[in-house]
Amino acid sequence: MAIRRLRLFAVAAALAAAVGVAVHSAGQSAGPGSFVDWPSAATPPASAPLASLLPSTTPPAPADGGLLGGLRVPLSAMLQGLNQETAASAAGQYNILSELSDALRERIDSFLSWVTAHH
Length: 119
Prior knowledge:
This protein is an all-alpha fold. It has helices at 2-26, 50-53, 72-118.
């Protein structure tokens, strides 16, 4: 019986450590150079379909030329939309991790209270 309790305590401690590391790493702010910052362009709403991000007419060739020069504006708009969606997804995941961390903390506290009360 004592081995089972010890095993349960070890699993709870490992889960608490894993959640703590996850919450800590998710709470870190991005430092300079840790994310891609695209040049600003007119950004459509995040819910706009992919077809609206692409120009309806062929844009004129830019003055600096190059084979991919005309793709700069549509790619920039698509990448900005991707950045916004990624930020929203990360915020949602952080909220879920915070709730799991709080729930796990309560369970561990109640478990430790139970263990100390019985010994």
